[in-house]
């Protein structure tokens, strides 16, 4: 990502019917319940990956029902998930098929929690709010892993990945002996959110004065989350209660944006996740 592109992306976001953002009065702000989630279908797309127990077993399905029961008690008026906004029509069709009893749920958290919760609440749709817009520059500008291997930072990269994998392995082990609700309570604790966010500062240090693929990648990550935040604003109206189910790595920055923008009243997730 070239120098100066993050401000350009930011103002591009805010120019789309959102700028300027007035600070809403407290009683006019939509409420936001942000639920960070492990990727239950084990896509293995992250720097370090958990091994998630099979959530389609009878025991885990019962636990997921208990989790959904707890979230339903908050009575959301809207549910949003990590599905590409450009594919809203596809998500609408999927939700319709599920409500009609013609769809078997996959292991994905979007299905297991998102679709299930929205149907239980009788909502007309579930909102797709993710985005993967093309960033400036080339793929090499963001490939911090290859740059580290080719420019004497292999040990730093390996140490970063190893630290993340140790934590992921410990979490995976804990998951085998704890309930789904306990998974979600652990991953949504404030301290956990903060620790998960710190890795982006480590990634940003990969590079040198003339070339900064780590910074580029992290800037692209932040830009993506700002776009997601913009989608959340667009689907809400005053008085809404928006439950957002998203990959746990996004939650720190989305919560930060929701609070700092003055656009949402942020709700404590631990108050609605079953013990």
Give me the count of strands.
5
Uncertain spans: 1-19
Percentage of residues assigned to helices: 40-55%
Structural class: alpha/beta
Give the spatial strand order of the biggest sheet: 3-2-4-1-5
The largest sheet, given as strand count, sense and whether it forms a barrel, is: 5 strands, parallel
| Net shape | globular
Mean pLDDT: 90
The radius of gyration computed from the alpha-carbon positions, rounded to a whole number of angstroms, is 19 Å
Number of helices: 10
| Helix-strand topology string | HEHEHHEHHHHHEHE
**What's the end-to-end separation, in Å?**
43 Å
Strand content: 5-15%
Structure characteristics:
disordered N terminus, alpha/beta, 10 helices, 49% helix, 5-stranded parallel sheet
Question: What's a concise summary of this model?
Answer:
This protein is 49% helix and 10% strand. The protein is α/β, with parallel strands linked by helices.
Overview of this structure, please?
The chain is an alpha/beta fold and 275 residues long. The protein contains ten helices and five strands, in the order αβαβααβαααααβαβ. The protein has a five-stranded parallel β-sheet with strand order 3-2-4-1-5, with helices on both faces. The longest helix has 23 residues, at 213-235. It is globular. The N and C termini lie far apart (43 Å).
Topology:
Layout: H1 5-14, E1 31-37, H2 58-72, E2 78-84, H3 88-99, H4 109-121, E3 127-130, H5 144-150, H6 154-175, H7 180-187, H8 190-204, H9 213-235, E4 241-247, H10 251-261, E5 265-267
Parallel strand pairs: 1-4, 1-5, 2-3, 2-4
Helix pairs in contact: 1-9, 2-4, 5-6, 8-9, 9-10
């Amino acid at each position: 990502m070239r120098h100066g592109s993050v401000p350009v992306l930011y103002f591009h976001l805010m120019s789309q019917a959102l700028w300027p953002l007035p600070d809403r009065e407290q009683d006019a702000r939509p409420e936001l319940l942000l639920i960070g989630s492990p990727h239950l279908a084990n896509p293995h797309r992250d720097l370090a990956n958990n091994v998630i127990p099979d959530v389609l077993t009878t025991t885990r399905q019962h636990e997921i029902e208990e989790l959904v029961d707890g979230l339903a008690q908050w009575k959301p008026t809207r549910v949003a998930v990590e599905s590409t906004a450009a594919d809203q029509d596809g998500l609408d069709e999927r939700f319709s098929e599920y409500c009609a009893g013609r769809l078997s749920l996959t292991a994905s958290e979007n299905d297991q929690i998102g679709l299930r919760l929205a149907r239980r609440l009788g909502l007309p749709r579930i909102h797709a709010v993710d985005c993967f817009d093309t960033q400036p520059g080339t793929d090499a500008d963001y490939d911090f892993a290859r740059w580290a291997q080719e420019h004497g930072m292999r040990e730093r990269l390996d140490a970063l990945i190893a630290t993340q994998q140790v934590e992921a392995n410990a979490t995976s082990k804990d998951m085998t002996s704890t309930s789904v609700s306990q998974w979600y309570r652990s991953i949504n604790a404030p301290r956990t959110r903060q620790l998960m966010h710190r890795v982006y500062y480590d990634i940003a240090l990969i590079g040198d004065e003339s070339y900064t693929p780590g910074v580029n990648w992290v800037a692209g990550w932040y830009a993506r989350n700002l776009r997601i935040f913009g989608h959340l604003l667009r689907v809400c109206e005053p008085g809404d209660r928006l439950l957002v189910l998203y990959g746990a790595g996004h939650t720190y920055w989305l919560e930060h944006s929701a609070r700092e923008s003055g656009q949402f009243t942020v709700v404590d997730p631990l108050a609605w996740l079953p013990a």
